[in-house]
């Protein structure tokens, strides 16, 4: 059986010194994180008025699910209310950081049905990876928030024992600029098989190293993008919904973990949004 992280800490702020040394943070819900998850659920409900589910694998059923999920995902990411809530949450989480320059990537709404039916494209089950293999900066901090059906049978995992250990991988195939201009938009076309060029490990990552993250709605895990992590298959009949976003603080790059095995290309920083000063 895989180990499971199934606990939460106090509401709190991020300590980047410990994050960059591999510490994992589990936060209880805040009023803002709960508002964000409720807002996400509204988009899902609007897009799936008869319920968010996928029970068959015919072309028609898959096409319908992918189309509706894409509308919900795009609407949530581009919504002004989403932006307002996210920026409020980031200000709270990074209240202890004394810098003017905090940047973030747009939030992603993940809608993951049973992996036996759909595990590619918009519902791709990520193999073990560091976000740096996808072109992220070493100072990136990941945030992952549970919305619905995050259980030991439907979640993601971290492999903390690999934080400071090199992993053989093919990250040299990944070009972030090419991904953003071409492959990101092709997600909804990947219905039966994932054809996009993902960086993957070239050595076995034992299941015993994988710690599944189980959290109820609004709970949040925060970790360095240098951590090895990936998706566990959704073996339930219920769609898993979660939110993730990433924060970058260039002033702290000197404190970030060293690049030990990433050869990805592209400039991640040009895709980030500067957190505006609060009026």
How would you describe this protein?
By secondary structure, the chain is α+β, with helices and mostly antiparallel strands. Helix content is 23%, strand content 16%. It contains five helices and eleven strands. Strands 2, 3, 4, 5, 8, 10 and 11 form a seven-stranded antiparallel β-sheet that branches. A four-stranded mixed β-sheet has the order 1-7-6-9, with no helix packed on it. The protein is globular and about 50 Å long. The N and C termini lie far apart (50 Å). Residues 1-8 have low confidence and may be disordered.
Q: In terms of structural class, how would the helical and strand content be classed?
A: alpha+beta
The overall average pLDDT, rounded, is 91
Helix content: 10-25%
The outline comes out as globular
Distance between the termini: 50 Å
| Number of separate helices | 5
Low-confidence stretches: 1-8
Number of strand segments: 11
The arrangement of helices and strands along the chain is EHEHHHEEEEHEEEEE
Determine Rg (CA atoms, Å): 18 Å
Query: Could you tell me the strand content as a percent range?
Result: 15-25%
* Main sheet record: 7 strands, antiparallel
């Amino acid at each position: 059986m895989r180990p499971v992280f199934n606990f939460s800490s106090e509401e709190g702020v991020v300590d980047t010194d410990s994050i960059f040394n591999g510490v994992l943070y589990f936060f209880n819900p805040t009023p803002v994180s709960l508002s964000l998850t409720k807002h996400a659920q509204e988009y899902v409900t609007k897009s799936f008025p008869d319920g968010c589910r996928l029970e068959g694998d015919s072309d028609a059923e898959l096409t319908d699910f992918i189309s509706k999920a894409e509308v919900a995902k795009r609407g949530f990411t581009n919504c002004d209310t989403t932006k307002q809530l996210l920026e409020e949450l980031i200000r709270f989480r990074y209240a202890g950081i004394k810098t003017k320059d905090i940047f973030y990537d747009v939030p992603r709404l993940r809608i993951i049905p049973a992996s036996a039916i759909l595990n590619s494209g918009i519902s791709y089950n990520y193999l073990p990876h560091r976000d740096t293999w996808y072109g992220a900066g070493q100072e990136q901090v990941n945030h992952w928030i549970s919305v619905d059906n995050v259980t030991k049978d439907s979640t993601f995992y971290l492999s903390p024992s690999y934080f400071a250990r090199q992993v053989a991988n093919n990250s040299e195939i990944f070009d972030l600029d090419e991904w953003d201009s071409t492959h990101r938009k092709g997600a909804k076309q990947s219905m039966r098989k994932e054809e996009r060029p993902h960086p993957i490990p070239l050595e076995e990552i034992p299941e015993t190293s994988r710690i599944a993250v189980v959290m109820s709605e609004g709970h949040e895990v925060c970790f360095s993008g240098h951590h090895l992590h990936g998706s566990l298959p959704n073996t339930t009949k219920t769609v898993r919904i979660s939110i993730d976003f990433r924060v970058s603080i260039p002033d702290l790059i000197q404190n970030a973990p060293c690049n030990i095995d990433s050869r990805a290309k592209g400039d991640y920083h040009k895709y980030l949004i500067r957190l505006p000063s609060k009026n």
